[in-house]
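Let us work through a complete example step by step.
Step 1: write down the sequence.
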Amino acid sequence: MWNPSASFLIALAATTCAVAGLCWFDHRVSVTRERLRHRVDLLAVARGQPAGGRRAPAPDAAGWLTMTSLRGDELEFARRLAPWHIPADLAPRLFLGLRLLAGLILATLLVLLGYRYFQVTAILHLAALGSLGAALGWKLPHLVTARLALQRRRSVEYGLADAIELLVISVEAGLSLEDSISRIVPELRRSQPAMAEELAVTGADLRMLPDPDAALRRMAERVDLPSIHSVVITLSQTLKYGTPLAQALHVVAEELRNDGLRKLEEQANRMPVLLTVPMILFILPGIFMIIGGPAFLKVMDVLAK
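Step 2: predict the structure and record it as tokens.
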């Protein structure tokens, strides 16, 4: 006879083994990555500047170069794995494994709960509960990563205006676009970490790719925001036709600030409409009680006499 307690223990043991395996894999990847980084640093010191006159990408941006081929959930999942020094090329397989593991755990939990607490004994009903849990577990990582990606895009959009203004200052000081991006990334790390990260990857792409337009297009594809697309189009046209970069960045910064003010005005105009329902539910009843309460009590007193 099927024992739900034994099945639960088996599922718990399998989950523990999977977590232990991931921890061991994380440790091995971290050790290997540190060794390779040390060897690369030694080679860079020995050789000086790389061949071709191109400067090496910043150390913090080099780890993100492999993410440019990822899209959607896998890209956001790879970003979350980066602090644990897990290579980005493993993100698709790990994300698939996470979805399968979540589906297995939720399916097992729903079957055990239905059998033990709700007295579900029919095989078809248990299979339906297991299928529902598997579907929820398969979809849950996607929903979580989509929410995290949305928050990240909002953070990037919020810090874009500050980044453009810093670029204007750097370009007016005589720096090129690549050098300006490298200069402002450390300044944005504390205030706008998401924007600094995207600029670090873009700066690395500008150094490694022969076409600057390709690096800018990659940034637009990664972030996928209308404001980023507008900035990328402006920079691409500036680099293509040779117009003054500082003037173009001035125009972009002014447009971003105007867009921000326009959004704030829209939110302020929506406030009276949004406050209507709270006023009806919470404020007007209190006002009616204060104004009409004494009169109502007097009427009740008169009727009672």
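Step 3: interpret the result. Residues 4-153 form one domain.
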